[in-house]
Amino acid sequence: MATMPTLFISHGGPSIVISDTPARHYLETVSSLVPRPKAIVIVSAHFETHGVTVVTDPKPEMIYDFRGFAPELYEMVYSAPGEPALAERVLELLEKAGLSPSRLGKRGYDHGTWTPMKLAFPEADIPIVQVSIDPARDACWHYALGRALAPLREEGVLLVGSGHVTHNLRAYFSVLRQGAEVDPALAGKVTAFTDWFAERFAASDLRALLDWKNSAPFPADNHPTDEHLMPIFFAYGAAGEQPKAERVHNSVDNGFFANDSYLFR
C-alpha cells in the first residue's frame, strides 16, 4: 500500500459549496491529487476541546454551525460514515504519544469537515474520523499531534487539517456585508504572511514555522485568534520528518482572504 500524503485545506465559509470560486473548484479536484484513501482522519478548526478528543460515532449527523447563510445550506447532508475501529487506532496512537486523548461517542460533522469533504469526495463513501484541536495549545502541540498519527499514512489513511491560512473575520465581514473597500495595507499583510509560510515550508524551516507568532510577518492581522491555523501544523507533523511541501492552491477572496492549501509528502 502506497504511503499517503497529508493535506492542509483552507475550508472557506459554508457557502463555498455553492459559490463559483477558484477555492471551490480547487476542492473539487482534491480526490485527483491523492491516492484513494481507505479512510480519512480530519482535524477541523471548528472542533475545539480541552486536550485532544477523538470521535467514535459510526454515523455522524450534520452540524450547521453558522447563521445567516443561504437556506439550501441547512438542507445539505454529507452521509459519510464514521469508523469506530479506526477511531480506536487513533486513540491508541495518541495515548502512546502521551497526549492523553478523550473519546466522544456522538458528534456530527461541522462545516470545517463536511463542506470541503462534500466537494472533495462527493460520493460520501469514505469513512471519516474526527479529531479535535485545542485552541489553548500552540503550534508545537498540534505538530506533535500530527506526528503521533503519522503511522496511519502507511495504512491507507488520509490525514487532513482543515482550517484557514488567514482568518481575520472582522475585516472579512466588513468588506462583505458593509461594502467597505479592501484596505491595500491589509491585503499586503495577507500576501506577506502567506508567502512567508510558502517560503518556510519550501525551506523545511520547522523552527521558524513553529515559532510563527514571533517569526511570521503580521501574525495578529491574519489570525486575531489562533485556532484556524493550528490544523496546518497537524498536517505538517503528520507527514513525518522534513516532508516536501507543495502549495497546491492559493486563491484569494475579496482581495485579502487567502485560501491556501498544501500537500505534504
Oligomerization: single chain
Shape: globular
CATH superfamily placement = LigB-like
The helix/strand series, from N terminus to C terminus, equals: EHHEEHEHEHEHHHHHHEEEE
DSSP summary: helix tally:
11
Named at the architecture level, the CATH assignment is: 3-Layer(aba) Sandwich
The main sheet orders its strands as 5-2-6-1-10-7
Main sheet specs: 6 strands, mixed
As a whole number of angstroms, the C-alpha radius of gyration is 17 Å
User: Structural class, from secondary structure content?
Assistant: alpha/beta
Produce a short descriptive summary.
The chain is of the alpha/beta class and 265 residues long.
Characterize the structure shown:
With 265 residues, this protein is α/β, with parallel strands linked by helices. It has one domain (6-264): 3-Layer(aba) Sandwich (Protocatechuate 4,5-dioxygenase, Chain B), CATH 3.40.830. The protein is built from eleven helices and ten strands. The chain has helices at residues 22-27, 30-33, 84-96, 111-120, 139-149, 169-178, 184-202, 206-210, 212-215, 219-222, 230-238; strands at 6-10, 39-48, 53-55, 102-104, 128-133, 157-163, 245-249, 252-253, 257-258, 261-264. The strands form three sheets. It has a six-stranded mixed β-sheet with strand order 5-2-6-1-10-7, sandwiched between helices. A two-stranded parallel sheet has the order 3-4. It has a two-stranded antiparallel ribbon with strand order 8-9. It comes from Pseudaminobacter salicylatoxidans. Belongs to the DODA-type extradiol aromatic ring-opening dioxygenase family.
